[in-house]
Fold this sequence. Notes:
Layout: E1 5-10, H1 18-34, E2 36-41, H2 43-46, H3 53-69, E3 78-81, H4 87-96, H5 101-105, H6 108-116, H7 123-126, H8 128-137, E4 143-145, H9 151-168, E5 176-178, H10 212-220, H11 237-249, H12 252-263, H13 269-296, H14 298-327
Parallel strand pairs: 1-2, 2-3, 4-5
Helix pairs in contact: 3-13, 4-8, 4-14, 8-9, 10-13, 11-13
Bound molecules: tryptophan.
Amino acid sequence: MSKEIVVSGIRSTGYLHLGNYFGAMKNYVKMQEDYDCYFFVADYHSLTTHPDPKDLKANVFRVVAENIASGLDPEKVALYAQSDIPEIPELYLLMNMLAYKGELEKVPTFKDKVRTQPDNVNAGLLTYPVLMAADVLIHKAVKVPVGKDQEQHVEMARNFANRFNHRYGDLFPEPQPFNFGSELVKVPSLDGTGKMSKSENGNATLYLADDDDLIRKKVMKAKTDSGPTEPNSEMPDYVQNIFQLMHLVSKPGTVDTYRGMYNDCTIRYGDMKKQLAEDMVAFIAPIRQKAIDLQNDEDGLRKILKAGAEKARESASKTITEARKLIGINYY
Ligand code: TRP
């Protein structure tokens, strides 16, 4: 039986952090066993915010290295750069004829950008969802692992797919956003507010590239208080967060021990954070080191991207040929 097709794009801006690891990368790693996976670095999408040309390659290589270091296996999935697949912009152009200015202007992520970068509201930003639809539809994907903030984009891809099918004939299945539901873990930030994220306070976010001392420093700064005074009292959010982080990287026994000490009011947060810091270092250090080793082997990374592009183009060229034919642009 042929496996279901999965496509997901990885942003090439910024460094990957623990939130990305548990929220996205772990999902990818799990999916590579059971699905036909296409994972790519969305470097064209990153151009909407005009990155410095001299940073682009290092960003792409770093993201690829960090994903492989986290467990993605380029033998099992097609791992490629979006810009290596010319069929994607071709399908994007075709899809632009079916996407309406009005609907694109209403997309919340577009409206956000209009607010945050009013002097660069380019057409690429407006048609960002169309390019994303092309990314997905070029492989006829049915499952698209994304975070909540991207679900509407997948819904638009579904609309464009249906519009195409309706006008020109059945070609695309309907892509659906996908996650592992309850297993999708939230990774709280270290300052007690919200989740770890790229855009928020960098000191409250642990990056896969952070060195051991920086990890320790950030963990030791996590917000706590003078400790519970009543047995079995309710945990404040920021303490729950520390337990949650411990739950992700420490042994179950360790978490239980500290939970017991919390409940009988003997807990010392300084000790708990020291333990968490060491467990965090033990968790992140091997991933960081593997990512560094991969980045130092540029030839190796180039080979991986080339092989990924070949796999992806095989599937993409079939789809684009079919699309052109249905539209009527097959003259010879
Ligand atoms: N827009 C996605 C993000 O910001 C990245 C992305 C680009 C993507 N193309 C995609 C995700 C296709 C899934 C499928 O995270």
